[in-house]
Protein 1
Amino acid sequence: MDINFELYKIFYHTAKAKSFSAAADTLHVSQSAVSQSIKSLEEKLGSKLFFRKNREIKLTAEGEILFKHIEQAYNFIKTAEHKIYQTQNMERGEIRIGASDTVCKYFLIPYIEKFIKNYPNIKIQVINRTSSQIEEILKKGLIDFGIVTLPVQDSNKIHHEEFLTVKDIFVASDKFSMLKNQETDIKTLASYPLLMLDRGTSTRRNIDSYLSSKGIGIVPEIELESIDLLVEFAKIGLGIALVLKESVADELKKGTLFEVKLKEDITLRKLGIITMKNVPLSRASSEFIKLLRTHSNPM
């Protein structure tokens, strides 16, 4: 049955007001337009919806059945309108972000802290994955946007923009003091016990690509999924760790670790914000990305 929903709207206000003229005033139309709409709806449904009693109009049995459902539907629609209004005005909403543990801990948290101060009713969910995994869950619609190491693997479907440039460095404890205050070439460093993230991470892929370009192959002493554990293992002298520079700021300052200076510069990594092409973002997600763009150094 193909019935214009506008007829149901007129029916709802007429039944609610128990008056054609009052419904006309509410809807800002003429009383005759209301009467014609009700007549049209009755013809389409094949049922009488109203009857007159004294000076009021009342619902028939069929009208009561229809009104019960229309009233519920109308309330659902008004609730949805209110929620959309709240979302557009940042009074409610949700943001789902994909980021690695490292990115979240050392770069994302200051932005989240600032954002929730401005918009306390927006719920933020962070899903921790590697860069390649973040691309996959973005394409599945499980997150609104992600922060990954560039370049992206599927540039046909995924839009990206640069966010930050980061640097990975080698650090060691005084057990390797022979490397302190001097420049070491990467080939020499490869002969020491090295501590690295596993092969599934962008940090590892970056250094492996760099070493391959130099014709150097390495087998790390220890491979882990956590930069924090690499830092702790380096502090007790298990080896020389490749870590994000920001992750050892305190250790370098205190002297519990030192940076092993290289003669060559390891290629810098670029972090990017990724979103799906042709998929509109919510107001909350757009505002969060705007915050990322305008505060390039939140630390």
Protein 2
Amino acid sequence: MAPSNGEFQRLDAEFVRVLEDVIETLVARNLLTITDLPEDAQAKLFARKSFRERSGRNSLNLFVETDYGDVI
């Protein structure tokens, strides 16, 4: 049975979220600056981040601080 269009949309949305978190991690580690990206990409990232913050959805927090320091 072939995947439905809705399934592709869900997978695409999840993948976009992963890319956002990868970009945030690269910026946090000073491996990338947001200005390295095209202006349109910057605007889209800021818009999505702002929306996520307003809607109460936090990033995946791949790097969580613990009693042992920052760990993956």
Protein 3
Amino acid sequence: MHVDSWRETYRGLMPDPVLDDPGLLRARERFWAGALTDQRYSSNRVAVAELDGAIIGIAMSGPASDADATWSWQLHVLYVDAARHGSGAGAALLDAVLDPHDAAALWVVGPLPRAQAFYRKHDFVPDGHSRTEAGNGAQTIRMVRRPAGSQA
């Protein structure tokens, strides 16, 4: 599901050799094996969305990892099968891994207006930081959510 979502979402935004790499599935398997079993990530929150026995979405958050973080949590993964966009699965996954009242941040690929609109709907706003992801060349922007009642 993770690899299929990458290929659906990032085609044209990441180099084809990255998305078509025969080792991509194995690399994502190693990523998830570590994320789910390594003690260093024991405080991470992970959720899956399922429909009729098939996984249609995944999400993972963890303690803030950006050096300049003024928030407590960071969303690391949120993917929903493109055929299920707009179904509510993304919102349910987001709420499962991030408390709606916690300050949080995420990095989203810049040229994805649908993803940015989804995060804006959930009170995330760009904070002016951007970066190029090592390994895949994706241009990303950081979006942050302040806790309810806080000043920007």
Protein 4
Amino acid sequence: MPATDPTTSARMSAQRRRDTKPEIAIRRELHRSGLRYFVDRAPVKGVRRRADLVFPRRKVAVFVDGCFWHCCPLHATYPKNNAQWWADKLAANVLRDRDTDARLAEQGWTVIRIWEHEDPSTAAERVRNTLLAP
């Protein structure tokens, strides 16, 4: 059985993987403060995961997570159609996020996870503080 009906499938396929509004807002804040970064890049070779922002010299990877796809504790929703399929899919996303965090940490990276609903200025400040920490 397919995960969704054709209309829902088309809507889900249209979701951006990169350059989302929250991501762009955070990038603008960081760029405005003079920070430079790579966009949509794998931080570590051999780990098939891409971070939204990468600061390779400081070994900092930033992920801007969508509330739906990554099960935000404040805003997560679960579709009623094919509920078990979606529950499994979303749980797998969260497990993959934790696995990514662990793999990057093993390589000496700092991972920053930002929810899409967070204020871009506050989120950018968190990234700046991490980058400027000794």
